[in-house]
Every structure is written in structure tokens, then in C-alpha cells.
């Protein structure tokens, strides 16, 4: 199992949203195209309406992932 750390240069953020359902839709699109992704929830625990959820993929998949997200 790979340790997925967003600070690792092997990963690239391809999408960010404050809305969890949008993150789930994008993750499903990427998964349908065999692109592994993981999310980092940066929402404030006290105020859930503040902050975003960031979606990361391997750097090697970043261009395709951004293309798929743009054209979903």
C-alpha cells in the first residue's frame, strides 16, 4: 500500500471543492478511467462550511485527470 501524502511531489492536486458530492462525482469519473485518487479534507471541524476538499492523483495521471474533469 502506498502512503498517500499530499506533500509528496509524486502527487498533484487536480480538483478542489467545498461540496462533498462534487468530489464524489469527480472521484467516480476518475475511477471509471482507472485513475486512483485520494481526498484531503481541509474543512474546519467547527465550521463545516469553511474550507475545501482537495482531490489528488499521481503526477503521471494529472494531465488526463484534469482533461476528464474539465470535460465531465
Q: How do the helices and strands follow one another from N- to C-terminus?
A: EHEEH
List low-pLDDT spans.
none
Number of helices: 2
According to CATH, the homologous superfamily is: Hypothetical protein rpa1041
Structural class per helix/strand content?
Answer: alpha+beta
Helical proportion, percent range: 25-40%
CATH architecture: 2-Layer Sandwich
Distance between the termini: 29 Å
User: Biggest sheet: strands, sense, closure?
Assistant: 3 strands, antiparallel
Q: What characteristic shape results from the CA principal axes?
A: globular
Overall pLDDT: 88
Cα radius of gyration in angstroms:
12 Å
- Strand content is 25-35%
Account of the protein in words:
This protein is globular. 31% of the residues lie in helices and 25% in strands. It has a three-stranded antiparallel β-sheet with strand order 1-3-2, with helices on one face. The protein has a single domain, classed as Hypothetical protein rpa1041 (Alpha-Beta Plaits, 2-Layer Sandwich). The termini are far apart. By secondary structure, the chain is α+β, with helices and mostly antiparallel strands. It has two helices and three strands, in the order βαββα. It has helices at residues 20-32, 62-70, and strands spanning 11-17, 37-41, 53-58.
